């Protein structure tokens, strides 16, 4: 069987792996705050900052700049397209307003034309109705004149008959010609 050998450090402490362990009594504290290591730490700090600067300036910042430039170009193009579309919309609105005004004018012309046609038809119908009313009025006046003449003749006949009957009732002999002349004079006024 093999025996394990332990190496010891100056203070005599060793672990099972053979690595020296630090004695808490002899440790100087945090190594990054040890002034003897400042030169080495400053060197690596400068190297790290230079490497980060080179990576950022050569790789990351150009990509970010390209993205920002592309975004700015897209925004500028979008604004230009929006202005163009706005101008087209204004032209379309003007064309719409003009077409609407033309349509209104045309509608008013159609309304005026239709109104004139309706008025002409109405005037013709009124003339026809007036002519028909005048014809019926003439017929009615003729019929009324015939009825009046018949009524007057009937009144004269009745008046003559009544007068002859009254004269006969009074005991005299009626004279037909005298009674007829008297009724006609009375009818005249």
Overall mean pLDDT stands at 84
Please report the total strand number as a whole number: 0
Percent in helix: over 70%
Question: Which percent range describes the beta-strand content?
Answer: under 5%
Rg calculated over all Cα atoms: 68 Å
- End-to-end separation in angstroms reads 182 Å
Shape: rod-shaped
Transmembrane segments: 42-61
Coiled coil: 82-113
Family: Belongs to the ATPase B chain family.
GO cellular component, one term: plasma membrane
Describe it for me?
With 189 residues, the chain is mostly helical. It has one domain. The protein is 77% helix and 0% strand. The chain is built from 2 helices and no strands. The termini are far apart. Belongs to the ATPase B chain family. Pfam families: ATP-synt_B. One of its GO terms (cellular component) is endomembrane system. This is ATP synthase subunit b.
Summarize the structure in short.
With 189 residues, the protein is an all-alpha fold.
What characteristics describe this protein?
2 helices; mainly alpha; 77% helix; 189 residues
What is the element layout, followed by pairings?
Blueprint: H1 38-169, H2 176-188
Helix pairs in contact: 1-2
């Amino acid at each position: 069987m093999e025996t394990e050998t332990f190496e010891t450090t100056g203070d005599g402490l060793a672990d099972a792996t053979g690595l020296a362990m630090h004695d808490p009594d002899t440790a100087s504290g945090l190594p990054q705050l040890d002034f003897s290591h400042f030169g080495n730490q400053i060197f690596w700090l400068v190297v790290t900052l230079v490497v980060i600067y080179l990576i950022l300036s050569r790789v990351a910042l150009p990509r970010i700049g390209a993205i920002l430039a592309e975004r700015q170009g897209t925004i500028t193009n979008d604004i230009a397209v929006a202005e163009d579309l706005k101008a087209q919309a204004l032209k379309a609105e003007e064309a719409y307003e003009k077409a609407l005004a033309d349509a209104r004018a045309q509608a008013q012309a159609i309304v005026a034309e239709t109104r004139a046609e309706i008025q002409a038809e109405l005037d013709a119908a009124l003339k026809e109705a007036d002519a028909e009313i005048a014809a019926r009025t003439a017929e009615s006046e003729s019929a009324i004149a015939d009825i009046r003449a018949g009524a007057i003749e009937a009144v004269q006949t009745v008046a003559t008959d009544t007068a002859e009957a009254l004269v006969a009732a009074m005991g005299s002999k009626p004279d037909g010609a005298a009674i007829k002349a008297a009724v006609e004079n009375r009818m005249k006024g």
